[in-house]
Structures are given as C-alpha cells and as structure tokens.
Design goal:
This protein is mostly beta strands. The protein is 5% helix and 43% strand. Strand 6 and strand 7 form a beta hairpin. The chain is globular.
C-alpha cells in the first residue's frame, strides 16, 4: 500500500489513497485517511486542483471549496460500477 503523505492547511498529517476515489464532475476525489493504515477516513482530496479543502454533506455529496468540483449523490451507483 502506497499512500501519499500530505499536510493539511491546519498542519495535520494525512494520507491520500490515489487508488481509491469517487468520480467528480471535474476530476476524481481521492479518499484521505488519518493514518497510514487507511483505517480512519479523514475526508477527500480534490484531484482536479490538488486541494484538501473539500466538504461532504449528509446526502453524500462531495464538493471542492477551491475549484467547485462536485460529486452528486445520484451519481453514486454509476461511479462505482
Ligand atoms: Zn478542487
């Protein structure tokens, strides 16, 4: 397993798994973990603009606050085929 270590704007060390992602309108959202073992999910990394400033709402929608890349919840099934 090769996770990419990155540091957030808050100075937090997190790990990006580029092999795991949700497909967004502008690019992939890579899954980010708190730990190297990928057991504790932190959030998402925007593959379109290389930002960690993303938000997921309760409906499962993921949005990048920097470039506006978005994954709509109704695309969940298609993106996971
Ligand atoms: Zn972005």
């Amino acid at each position: 397993m090769a996770l990419e270590q990155v540091t957030t704007a808050e100075g937090e060390r997190v790990y990006v798994d580029r092999a795991r992602f949700e497909r967004g309108a502008e690019g992939p959202f890579h899954v980010v973990f708190n730990d190297e073992g990928a057991s504790d999910r932190w959030g998402f990394h925007c593959g379109s603009c290389d930002s960690l400033d993303t938000a997921m709402d309760t409906m499962g929608r993921i949005q990048c606050n920097d470039c506006g890349n978005i994954r709509k919840p109704d695309e969940w099934d298609a993106a996971n085929e």
